[in-house]
Structure formats: structure tokens, C-alpha cells
Amino acid sequence: MSPTYDVIVIGLGGMGSAAAHHLSARGSRVLGLEKFGPVHSRGSSHGGSRITRQSYFEDPAYVPLLLRAYELYDRLERDTGRDIAALCGGVMLGRPDSRTVSGSRLSAEQWDLPHEMLDAKQIRRRFPTLTPGEDDVALYEARAGLVRPENTVAAHLQLATRNGADLHFEEPMTRWEPYRDGVRVHTAEDTYTAGQLVICPGAWAPELLTDLGVPFTIERQVMYWFQPSGGVAPYLPENHPIYIWEDVEGVQVYGFPAIDGPDLGAKVAFFRKGTPCTPETIERTVHDDEITAMAEQVGRLIPGLPGGFLKAATCMYSNTPDEHFVIARHPAHPGSVTVAAGFSGHGFKFVPVVGEILADLATDGATEHPIELFDPSRLAATPA
Ligand SMILES: Cc1cc2nc3c(=O)[nH]c(=O)nc-3n(C[C@H](O)[C@H](O)[C@H](O)COP(=O)(O)OP(=O)(O)OC[C@H]3O[C@@H](n4cnc5c(N)ncnc54)[C@H](O)[C@@H]3O)c2cc1C
């Protein structure tokens, strides 16, 4: 007889580990299946840091979810004693009419979020590492900062295990099918049945969610660590904020303070501007011309940062056409399957609240969180 569960969660990366925790905390019998080991670097949830912020330029509809995510991140730190979030403050920088500045301001004003608008002179005075152009302005948010992805995933896995979830690593799902009122899931090792399936596939969405009809595209992204020319002191979190800077061409660069000691420098990356890939074919080598392009671009805003190149690592974005998430009951299997995918390079700051939403959807069929924006029917290909 196959083992039976209330819920099977596929993928124990950022979203799936949070779902496994929230479901098991509510008393569900949970099986989590993960293709690789715990907290790995072959998906989208590695690299030491992720920006978190509330004045959300992408859409004000994300703000209530962010407010809840902040509460849950706090609780996760308390419950596990791990170092997860550092709210060092952040600047969203660019021309006043850039999406980064105007969109952040819209969210801040609409939701009455604490923020300050700074002109170029004020930015330079407050953050001497930054040299914005004369026409640049910034929205400064004291509650912006970073979360640590590996520690977040490890914390959720730890709590899920403590709650009694069965977590199987190196055991990918090979296929699943509807079975009685629920689902049957196959792996090379075994077959499992459950009332509910929650699929959190990250960059494997095109493979695992073909029947959703959403045109996901997977993008190779690179994270770069540079050693500042004058040492890391001016780049420590008490002096140097997280930043997203949009230039006049609309190219966005973002980065972090030096959070990992004097030898590991500070991390910086392009937001978007990646190349299409698949998890199987992604080019993991980072080439000299890419490093040069990154150093040149970030050097325009932070001349002291690209002193020496330290290292680079690749990661994948899973994009939807409008860059909004997909979080919903599966339209073809609304009674038994829930999906969370297409986080389009900005999902990590939401991880704990997505876990809570997935637990709501899988156990109650609905959630009180506002997720209308994430309905996959907005993107599904219209039948010919
Ligand atoms: C370079 C980079 C920078 C980013 N910066 C930010 C940022 O600053 N702020 C922010 O909020 N977000 C950021 N993001 C986005 C954020 O990290 C992602 O949205 C988030 O990590 C996605 O989590 P996930 O659970 O969907 O994917 P993953 O964490 O990759 O999890 C998917 C899991 O599914 C598993 N899997 C796949 N197939 C199977 C199968 N058949 N059976 C079992 N398991 C399977 C995979 O092994 C993987 O572990 C960034 C992403 C990248 C790549």
C-alpha cells in the first residue's frame, strides 16, 4: 500500500519549504519531495542575500503581502534563532519619472509607508559611497534591507521537520495523476497518494506546469561580488544601504552592503537583462566581458565598489510575461492542485507569506490574502 498524506509539496526551494512549514504547522500530514539536496544552489534561492522592501515599484497590490511577510520573517527568526533579515535601509534611485522611483513612491503614498524623498545632493551627503547624477532622486525606506535565502530555506525545512513533515531529498517527482478525490505522485523510489498537491517548481515550471498554459521563460542571471577599492568599512550595512538604481535607458542595477566580513566584498547584479536558458542548459561559467560590463555599470553609481572582482555565481529567474507571480488553485484541477510559480526575479521577499497562502489554498481552497493579481487565467494562451 502506498504511503498516504494530506498534502504533497513538490520542490523544497524558497516557496515549497515555506509551504511545507505552514501546512505541517496546521497539523497536515505533509510529504515534501525535492529533486536535489536541502538548500542547494541549482535553482533560484541561493547567493547569500535578497533585497526586501515595502514601497514596491512593481505594483501597490503587493504591499499588504509584504507587510505580512515582514511579520512572518520576524517570527521565523525568533522560532529558529537563525540570522535571516537585516533591515539596513534602502534607496530606490533614478530619474523622478523612472519606474523605480515613481512606482516606489506610488506604493509608499498609497499605503502610507514611512519613506523620505532625497535629491542628488542629499543622497551623496547621506550615503557617501553613492554618486548619483544631478537629475537623480531616491526614495529612501528605512525598513528596506535584505533577507538571507539559504538561512530562510533552512529555517523552514527545520520547522517543517520539527512539525513532523516527511521531507525526501534527491527524490524528484517523475509524474503525477488525479487519483480518487486527490492525486497520486510517482518518483523513481515509490508512489504516494494525497488529497492535495502543491507544486512549487521554480525554474522547472515549463516542465512541471505545461498544462497551465502560462508561457514561462527561464532567464540566466549572474550575481557578482567585488572588493571595494578602499576596503569594506564604508560598505558595511550601517553606512551603505541596499539600492536599486535605474539609469536613463531603464537598465536597473541593484546591490547590497558588505555583509559577510572583510574578504567577501559586496554583491551587485543587473535586475533582469538575463539570457534565456533552461535548468539543464544554463551556462554556469561567468565570462570576462560580463564582469567588465557589470563593473562599468555599477562603477557609474558607486565608483569605489568595483575595486577587485572576487567571484560570480549564476541563478535563474522564472518569468511570466507581465512579471507578476502565479499563485492559485490549478484551473484544470481546482479541487486538488495548487501552484506557485513565475516569481519573475522578485519573489524571495514574499517567501513566508507565499507559504501561508499555499497552506490556505491547499487546506481551505481559498485565502484571505489578496492574490487576484496572480491568477494564471490572465496569461493563459487563448485557444485558437
Ligand atoms: C540572481 C537572483 C537574484 C534575485 N534577487 C531577488 C531579490 O533581491 N529579492 C527578491 O525578492 N527576489 C529575488 N530573486 C527571486 C527569488 O530568489 C525567487 O523568486 C525565489 O527564490 C523562487 O523560489 P522558488 O521556490 O520558486 O524556486 P526554487 O527555490 O528554485 O525552488 C524550486 C525547487 O523545485 C525543485 N524541483 C524542480 N523539479 C522538481 C521535481 N520534479 N521534483 C521535486 N522537486 C523539483 C528544485 O530543485 C528547486 O529546489 C532573485 C533571484 C535570482 C536568481
Fold and architecture overview:
- By secondary structure, the chain is an alpha+beta fold.
- Helix content is 25%, strand content 28%.
- A hairpin with a 2-residue loop joins β10 and β11.
- α1 runs parallel beside α5 and α1 packs across α8.
- The model has no long low-confidence stretch (mean pLDDT 97).
- The longest helix has 18 residues.
- The termini are far apart.
- The chain is globular.
- The strands form three sheets. Strands 5, 6, 7, 13, 14, 15, 16, 17 and 18 form a nine-stranded mixed β-sheet that branches. Strands 1, 2, 9, 10, 11, 12, 19 and 20 form an eight-stranded mixed β-sheet that branches.
- The site of flavin-adenine dinucleotide (FAD) has 37 residues, from α1, β3, β13 and β18.
Quick structural overview:
25% of the residues lie in helices and 28% in strands.
Compile the SSE list and pairings:
Blueprint: E1 4-10, H1 14-25, E2 30-33, E3 50-52, H2 63-80, E4 85-86, E5 90-94, H3 99-110, E6 116-119, H4 120-126, E7 137-141, E8 145-147, H5 149-162, E9 166-168, E10 173-179, E11 182-187, E12 191-199, H6 205-208, E13 217-227, E14 242-246, E15 252-255, E16 266-271, E17 275-276, H7 288-301, E18 308-319, E19 326-329, E20 337-341, H8 351-364
Parallel strand pairs: 1-2, 1-12, 2-9, 5-14, 12-20
Antiparallel strand pairs: 3-8, 4-8, 5-7, 6-7, 10-11, 11-12, 13-16, 13-17, 13-18, 14-15, 15-16, 19-20
Helix pairs in contact: 1-5, 1-8, 2-5, 2-8
What is the ordering of alpha helices and beta strands? EHEEHEEHEHEEHEEEEHEEEEEHEEEH
Which ions and ligands are bound to the chains? Answer: flavin-adenine dinucleotide
- Label the overall shape: globular
Number of beta-strand segments: 20
Helix content: 10-25%
Number of helices: 8
- β-strand percent reads 25-35%
Rg of Cα set: 21 Å
| N→C terminal distance | 43 Å
Major sheet summary line: 9 strands, mixed
Residue-averaged pLDDT, rounded? Answer: 97
| Uncertain residue ranges | none
Structural class: alpha+beta
